[in-house]
Amino acid sequence: MRKALTAICLLGALSVPLAARAQTTDVSDQDKTFITGQQQTNLAEVALGKTVMEKTTNEKVKDLASHLMSDHQKVSEENAALSKKLGVTAPTEPSAEQKANADKILAQSGQAFDQAYVAAQVEGHTKSIEKANKEISSGSNADVKAFATKYLPKAQSHLDMSRTAQTQLSGTETARAANGLARTGRSTGRLAGFGIVALLLGLSVVRLSRRSAATPS
Q1: What predicted TM-score, i.e. pTM, was given to this entire model?
Q2: Maximum pairwise Cα distance, the chain
C-alpha cells in the first residue's frame, strides 16, 4: 500500500513541471509569425540605421537612426533568447520586402533620402504597433504575449519620434521654398524697377525729340 502511494506521489510531482513546460512551450502560428517577423524588423532596423548614420548630413535624422538602431539591437537580443527558449528558429536577415524597401531608400540622396527614411519609419512602426496589439489580443503563448506587451510602448515611442522628425523635415523644406520665393520676388521687384526707369527715360527722349522737331532751324 505504501509503495502504491509513493508511486502516485512521484507521478503527481513529475506531472506538474511537465504540464507547466507544455503550457510554456505551446507556440501557435500567430506566436511564431509575430516573433519571427519582429526579429526580421529588428535586423532591418539595425542594418539600415548604420548606413543612414553614415550617409545623412541631417543631425535630427542621424539621432533618430542612432536611437532606433540601439533600441532594436536590444530587442533583437531579447527576441533571439525567447526564440531559443521556445524552440523557434530565429531569422538571421531581414525579409525580401524589407531589403527591397531599404534599397529604395538608399538610392535617394540629400533631402529626398532623409524624407524617405523617416517616412519608412513612420509606416513601419505603425505596422509594428498593429502586429504587437494583434499578438497581445490573439496570441497563445504567455511568453510571446509578454514580449509583445513590453515592446508595444517602445514601438509607440519610435513612431512618435519618427513623426516629429518628419514634421521637422517638412518644415525645413517649406522654409527653403519660401526663401526661394522671397529671393525671386526681390529679383522680380528689381527688374520691375529697372523697367520703370527705362520707360521714363524713353518718354524723356521722345519729348526732347518732339521739341527739337518743333523748333525752327
Answers
A1: 0.70
A2: 154
